[in-house]
Write a structure and sequence with these properties.
heterodimer, A: about 400 residues, alpha/beta, Rossmann fold, Arc Repressor Mutant, subunit A, 3 domains, six-stranded parallel beta sheet, elongated, B: about 350 residues, mainly beta, 27 strands, about 5% helix
């Protein structure tokens, strides 16, 4: 028997004009080459999906994009083994019945984008989605995920679906998008449901003079190199596990061709990472770490704390804390501790008749000599001179008496 | 070379030693079992978290059922029926896995011994003597593990052993990692293992065949999410309740080479494993459900990558490579390197 007679004929029903679908097909190809399984693949020459007459196609199995409602409908009663590929659903009832289903995990895609914006220091968030349609139920699933996450954390939920993209409606849809952007309190972190959507949003920001990432920090989904080359500011994006979805779908169909029945198998594939570029590298003006650190220093500076204890309290490494301090306060953690000690020593000298030895102890200096040296370096005088100067200058309170 | 001094503290009846580096990583190791107790490491934004699973205190390690963090020996993994023949002499060693097979050194397991500790050149040397006949093994074995932590985040373990009589030997470390610090299970961790083949097991987890990973859930030649792979329909996964299988690492033995990588997209932490050993047991924490540790663990809350000789190798075609003879020196090196991807 020749190989051509034994090879299974498999149809791949995808619109492979987008990176996501192309990577799924890449994954199917990778599975076939690793196993040396020979499938005759049926794919349209332009890599687009046409369903006319698919019910008469003489083949052995199908892997298809079930995000497309037309595909869903035409394969509903297919007698062939079919593996469905698509987005995950929050509601169990939204999955097609009786088929193995390989999904990109919409909740985890949005969560990864959201966690990244939180990490970047943002405290306000919005989602730029797509108008509700049967063809993009995944966008509505990403809206659901966004709602769940923000409700969990108690943030206000801001979602804009915008208009469907069309040449005649382009101007007015850009105007409306700009109006929405201008109405958002800044700074804001925006997740776009796709990189194509993120690209439009970035263009609108630039037209409206809204700075990215300072006022709007932006992250898309897909990690599409084409969208990236068309944006002036490199676009951050969540990378889907699309290749693994392809491998998984191929494996399931391979099993089914061998007679295994898998009607209830559902495999959710998580994202593989984020490509962090300039569009989301927002530097919060007040890093929560620096705020926490200063809070701690204010309380304990005079008890002789060291940088290490501050880092432990904040829960970050010493080197990252130093990095945050350098960026925001232009000093080291040690200098900040010293400044608080010095301020406190100055206050004591001004208001009390205490010896410098006593003040050095109370302010956490290791010795009066060290305090003396710090005064000379920072204020250009000794503690005693400082005290004399303060006491000779009448304060507001003494003048009114 | 790290310039941070090793520090010591009392820990119940035992002691804890701390290694640290310039990234503020802190690794705590106990003399009980030469155990890796905790490892604090920064995530993508510098936040430190403990990326190991473990018990809350020393008492937990005295009866360390899951082998959290321990050094395992004299024979890591399983020996069928606890039986092997060496130079024509049959031996019966402890059958502590369900009364049938030998597992992890039996009742004289190194994980429950108190090791002698000495500081050495910025690192720590743990040493142990395992007496002739312990758990049924021949020969008095002297074992040494040197731990060191460098500023790149590499925890290096150099093993050496000598024996006064021929004995099987396979030493490994048994840390359970969770790179997100326990905020979620390990399902979304992406694993890559440089192995074209793995050992299929029977119902009692004894290897029975060497198989290609291609086309199966076991193919981690490209990075793949552990949780999604656990959902693949696969008879081998069904037997073990997940992954508990030894990979036959590519690239021969003896040379220290990179063999596996694990990446957690949420925290950005990444673990890279390199070893001189031929085998790498991948265990996806299948039996963790309900285990009481620093918190109550659930299945798949942690994973292990244990570099070792092949399980039951003493009963296989390559048995001699698992035997240490007088005059020879057993040596193995395994490195766990923790970093972040931005």
């Amino acid at each position: 028997m020749s190989r051509a007679q034994t090879a299974h004929r498999i149809a791949l029903l995808f619109n492979a004009n987008k990176i996501y679908d192309r990577e799924i097909i890449t994954g199917i190809g990778a599975y076939l080459s690793s196993t040396r399984v020979a499938w005759d693949l049926f794919l349209e020459e332009d890599f687009l999906c046409r369903l006319d007459g698919i019910e008469h196609w003489q083949g052995d199995g199908i892997i298809a994009d079930f995000d497309d409602p037309a595909v869903c409908e035409s394969l509903r009663r297919s007698p062939l083994p079919v593996v469905a590929v698509g987005g995950s659903y929050e509601d169990e009832r939204d999955y097609p019945l009786g088929l193995p289903y390989v999904a990109t995990d919409n909740f985890k895609l949005v969560r990864l984008a959201y966690d990244h914006l939180i990490e970047a220091g943002l405290q306000r968030f919005a989602l730029y989605s797509l108008p509700t349609a049967q063809g993009n139920r995944w966008a509505q699933e990403r809206e659901k995920a966004f709602r769940r996450l923000l409700a969990r954390d108690g943030f206000p939920i801001e979602i804009y679906q915008g208009l469907a993209t069309s040449a005649p409606g382009w101007n007015s849809s850009v105007e409306q998008l700009i109006a929405w952007l201008e109405g958002l309190p800044k700074p804001v972190g925006i997740i776009a449901v796709t990189d194509a959507r993120a690209r439009q949003l970035m263009q609108a920001c630039l037209m409206a003079g809204i700075s990215v990432p300072q006022e709007v920090a932006l992250i898309g989904i897909d990690n599409d190199p084409l969208a990236r080359t068309l944006t002036r500011i490199p676009l951050s994006s969540v990378i889907q596990g699309a290749e693994e979805m392809g491998r998984t779908a191929a494996h399931l169909l391979h099993q089914m061709l061998g007679g295994v029945r898998l009607p209830a198998t559902r495999i959710l594939v998580p994202p593989v990472g984020i490509n962090v570029l300039a569009s989301s590298q927002h530097e919060a003006l007040n890093s929560p770490y620096v705020m926490r650190a200063r809070h701690y220093i204010r309380q304990y500076a005079c008890q002789g704390i060291k940088t290490e204890q501050v880092a432990d309290y904040v829960g970050v490494s010493r080197s990252s804390l130093e990095g945050y301090f350098r960026r925001e306060l232009h000093c080291t953690v040690h200098q900040e501790i010293l400044r608080f000690k010095l301020d406190h020593a100055c206050a004591l000298l001004a208001d009390h008749d205490l010896s410098s030895a006593e003040i050095a102890i109370r302010c956490g200096f290791t010795s009066p000599q060290y305090m003396h040296a710090v005064f000379k370096r920072e204020l250009g005088c000794t503690p005693r001179e400082y005290q004399e100067r303060q006491q000779s200058t009448p304060t507001l309170a003494t003048r009114t008496q | 070379m790290t310039s941070y001094p090793v520090t010591t503290q009392d820990w119940g009846n035992y002691r804890l030693f701390q290694l640290r580096n310039a990234q503020d990583m802190r690794v705590l190791i106990s003399d009980l079992g030469a155990t890796l107790v905790s490892w604090h490491a920064p995530d993508r934004s510098g936040r430190l978290a403990d990326i190991l699973l473990g018990h809350a205190g020393p008492e937990g390690y005295e009866n360390n059922g899951p082998y959290f963090g321990s050094q395992v020996g004299r024979w890591a993994n399983r020996i069928r029926d606890g039986r092997f023949t060496l130079d024509g002499v049959p031996y019966q060693v402890d059958r502590n896995q369900g009364g049938q097979h030998h597992l992890h050194g039996g009742h004289a397991g190194f994980h429950q011994q108190v090791w002698a500790v000495a500081a050495s050149d910025g690192g720590l040397v743990f040493s142990l003597q395992s007496a002739e006949g312990e758990a049924g093994f021949p020969g008095t074995l002297r074992v040494e593990v040197r731990y060191s932590l460098d500023d790149d985040g590499t925890l290096r373990m150099d093993y050496q052993a000598v024996s006064d009589a021929p004995t099987p030997i396979s030493l490994t470390a048994h840390p359970y990692f969770n790179l997100n610090g326990g905020e979620a299970d390990i399902g979304d961790h992406l694993l890559q293992i440089a192995a074209d083949q793995y050992l299929q097991v029977d119902e009692s987890l004894i290897p029975v065949a060497r198989c290609a990973v291609a086309g199966s859930a076991f193919d981690f030649l490209q990075p793949a999410p552990i949780g999604a792979r656990l959902a693949w329909p696969d008879g081998q996964l069904a037997i073990a309740g997940g992954f508990d299988h030894c990979y036959c690492l590519n690239g021969g033995t003896q040379a220290l080479r990179p063999v596996a990588e694990v990446y957690d997209p949420t925290s950005g932490r990444e673990l890279r494993v390199s070893t001189t050993e031929p085998g790498l047991q991948f265990y996806s924490g299948n039996f963790l459900d309900g285990a009481e540790g620093r918190r109550r663990y659930r299945a798949h809350d942690g994973f292990c990558l244990e570099a070792q000789r092949y399980p039951d190798q003493v009963n296989g075609p390559d048995a001699e490579a698992a035997i240490l003879r007088p005059g020879q020196r057993y040596q193995q090196t395994t490195c766990y390197r923790l970093g972040v991807r931005r």
